[in-house]
Design brief:
With 124 residues, this protein is α+β, with helices and mostly antiparallel strands. The chain has four helices and four strands; from the N terminus they run βαβαββαα. It has a four-stranded mixed sheet, with helices on one face.
Length: 124
Amino acid sequence: MVLLQLDPFLNELTSMFEKSKDKGSVWVTLKRSSLKSKLQKRKLSSAGESIEYRCLIRATDAKKTISTSVGAKDHLRFQASYATILKAHMTALKKRERKDRKKSTEAEMKEGTSTTTSKPTKKL
């Protein structure tokens, strides 16, 4: 995993979306992080110091993983840039199949069979 600055991360994310336009996926995850170990966090909290949390953003296309860390003062700029990238690549976004789709079709089939069991009417 490569920890990049904000602008190189956004450029690399754009190239990931471009490469996966026809085939493939890009996974983006966001997580709250302080970028400190548990021991460092305990020392800071026992000393009464506040811990500055940041947003750790990771992106992967199964071949390459990149990440960046965004602080509170840069989050609006990142959010706007990320939204622009997503809007530019909306045509490549695909809806994932839901796992419970099979269950819903089975339920519809059961309902369909119960309505077709009524007696047919004869035409005279």
